[in-house]
Structure formats: structure tokens, C-alpha cells
Amino acid sequence: MKPVITLSLRTAAALLLCATAALADDSLDTQVDIAYERFQLDNGLTVLVHTDHSTPTVFVGMWYGVGSKDEPEGKTGFAHLFE
After folding, report:
1. Structure confidence by residue, pLDDT tens digits, 49-66
2. Contacts of 70 (CB under 8 A, 6+ apart)
């Protein structure tokens, strides 16, 4: 391909990309309110429950506060030691 055609195609592609980015709608509300129950078990485990009977599925997710951001001051590196 000739250099002039290649440059023209690249310029057209860049202008098209800029035009679509400029037309993007930023007014979309990304905040979703989902009703849930929150309670804490005797062992300290926090449980969040959301009930939705629209489909016959169950999801269980667990998050543990164990990682480098949860290490106490002066005791860094233990999270990577036990990986």
C-alpha cells in the first residue's frame, strides 16, 4: 500500500474513534440499589443475603480480609509467605 493511502486510512480511523468517543452518553446511571439483609454471626462472620426468585440459581461468594493490605504495621510480607 502506498504511504499516502496508509496515512489517510490511519487518519480516518483515528477521527472515527474520536467521534464515537465524543458521542458516548455519560448520563447513564451506574448506581444500582439491590435490597439485601446484613447480619453478623456469633463467630464474627458478616453475612449478606439477597433473595431473587426469578431464576432457580444460587450464588455464594466469599471474601476474606487476608492480604497485604490487611497486614498489621510492622508485620509485612506474611500474605506472600503463605501463598
Report:
1. 999 999 999 999 888 777
2. 79
